[in-house]
Amino acid sequence: MMQSLVTDLNKLCDEQLFHTGWYLKDLRLGATADRQGHVVVPSASTRKIAIMMTALKAVHEGKLALDQPVTMLAKYQDNDSGCFQHFQPGFTIQLRDVLIMMIIVSDNTCTGIVVDLVGLDAINALSQSVGMRGTTHRY
Known about the structure:
Order of helices and strands: HEEHEEHHH
Strand order of the largest sheet: 1-2
Radius of gyration: 17 Å
Number of helices: 5
Strand content: 5-15%
Structural class: mainly alpha
Oligomer: single chain
Shape: globular
Largest sheet: 2 strands, antiparallel
Mean pLDDT: 90
């Protein structure tokens, strides 16, 4: 099954006009495959997936609730991504909506709030537990 996926991924990459690479790890069997997987590239907003997974883990553990209110503070609005940087500070939305905006709009106001809610240590621990590198950056 992995070889079929590798073939399909490489075919997609070969069709692109730009450099592409990937790294794949079967978490059950430990098998790995890659295409330029050793090349270090900026993770940009892909790290938001690990942030979201850490928040959802905290929800599953009862540490956070999807319907809990989250206040958008001015200190999180000093960024260059998303809608909420342009809103008046102090409004409140549910954590569920914060996570949605962090992912579908790449809103860094939301990302900063979620990072502070769960903590970099928890994000790094979850990332490392599934074989990802941690981060020292907020987003």
